[in-house]
Specification:
The chain has about 400 residues and is an alpha/beta fold. It contains 14 helices and twelve strands. The chain has a single domain, classed as Metal-dependent hydrolases (TIM Barrel), CATH 3.20.20. It is about 45% helix and about 15% strand. Helix 2 packs across helix 13 and helix 6 crosses helix 14.
Length: about 400
């Protein structure tokens, strides 16, 4: 009887573990996907130009889902094979550590979290189950492991010279794709400034003030109070600048964005979003905000999902990029897909030629296309990241 009980207990445990292991895939299948609509034919001019580009994207949430990014997946939008097919030179991978239940773009509390169950289901180390900073450090560890196992095809960048070497190696014909770590909402600091150094040491070089709820640093566009920077937030921004970490104001409330721009001594980014002129909602920027980010020397990343561009087509993405160019200037516009961010998009990372094609159709010159598709972001990172 004892053996039977042990066997039954073991089978139940295996069933539970098996069920948990399947959960992340089930969840991601519900949230990340493609519209399935037919994509426009790509011109010969666009296909030829795309092969010569150095493409960079400022925001993907791929590390959240526990997939092996070295192998092609039937889920989501990003993995190394698809980045290579899309001719991506550098992908910024964000660490998402907390997301409120009942997520919406208008008002969210910080009292609930839907990520905790995912950390357990993915069989992450127990230290991540109750600690936001440990979740970010685990994302960093996962990316480092991928780099080590990639046979040189994936390379983490941490400095300006790292970016320069990446581009030189790609120009010399090496098969290598860059990766950089970012944070989506610095609630992962857990109110402790010393954790910023832990993130830096783990390779994080960009971080957003807030995500979908107000936190200890400041207000979110989607929070309850939507306030400005707190004293702790000002302290963190100053420390980030001292370390040459890039401040990301995507998701920040209008007051927080104003406060960051008022105190910033270095350029900031709006890593992923849209423009209010083509898609008016709580996730896009006004023309005044576009101008002020450009005046700061920063970058505006245009995304591919409904809250960024409203209509899920390559032409709508090109329309948002065109407006940002006309208002902020061509040197301040970039890509910020929000791939794998619980988003539905028209295409995945392997099909980025669709953006090149749509921009050419809209009258962008090849040099303008080159800047938007990655030239601006790569030059920005080479200048702004730590130089050693």
């Amino acid at each position: 009887m004892g053996r039977k009980i042990k066997l039954a207990t073991g089978l139940v445990a295996l069933a539970i573990i098996g069920g948990l292991a399947a959960l992340p895939g089930i969840v991601e299948g519900q949230f990340n996907g493609l519209t399935g609509a037919p994509l426009p034919a790509v011109s010969a001019e666009a296909a030829a130009l795309h092969k010569t580009l150095q493409i960079a994207d400022m925001h993907a949430d791929t590390l959240l889902w526990g997939r092996d990014i070295l192998h092609r997946s039937g889920r989501g939008h990003v993995d190394l094979p698809r980045l290579e097919e899309g001719n991506v030179a550098l992908q910024v991978f964000s660490s998402v550590t907390k997301s409120p239940k009942g997520l919406n773009y208008h008002a969210n509390s910080d009292k609930t979290d839907s990520i905790t169950l995912l950390t357990v289901a993915e069989l992450q180390p127990p230290r991540t189950w109750s600690s936001l900073i440990e979740r970010s450090l685990w994302h960093s560890e996962r990316l480092r492991r991928a780099e080590q196992n990639s046979d040189g095809r994936l390379r983490i960048v941490r400095t300006g010279p790292d970016v320069a070497r990446l581009l030189a190696d790609r120009a010399a014909g090496k098969r290598v794709t860059g990766a950089m770590l970012s944070v989506e909402g610095m609630h992962d600091l857990e109110g402790n400034l010393a954790n910023l150094q832990r993130l830096y040491d783990a390779g994080f070089r960009m971080a957003g003030i807030a995500h979908f709820f107000d936190n200890q640093l400041g207000g979110s566009k989607h929070g309850m109070k939507k306030g400005g920077l707190t004293p702790f937030g000002r302290q963190v921004v100053a420390e980030m600048e001292r370390r040459r970490m890039i401040v990301d104001v995507a998701h920040s409330s209008d007051r927080t964005l104003d406060d960051v721009l008022a105190m910033a001594t270095r350029p900031v980014v709006y890593s992923h979003g849209g423009v209010r002129a083509t898609c008016p909602n709580d996730r896009t920027l006004s023309d005044d905000q576009l101008r002020r980010i450009a005046a700061n020397g920063g970058l505006i990343g245009i995304g591919y999902w409904d809250a960024a561009v409203c209509t899920l087509t390559p032409d709508s993405i090109a329309a948002a990029i065109a407006h940002a160019r006309d208002v902020a200037g061509i040197d301040h516009v970039a890509l910020g897909s929000d791939f794998d961010g619980a988003t539905i998009t028209p295409f995945d990372a392997s099909q980025l030629v669709q953006v090149t094609n749509a921009l050419l159709k809209r009258g962008f010159t090849p040099e303008e296309v080159r800047k938007v598709m990655g030239g601006n972001t790569l030059a920005f990172l080479e200048r702004q990241l730590p130089q050693r």
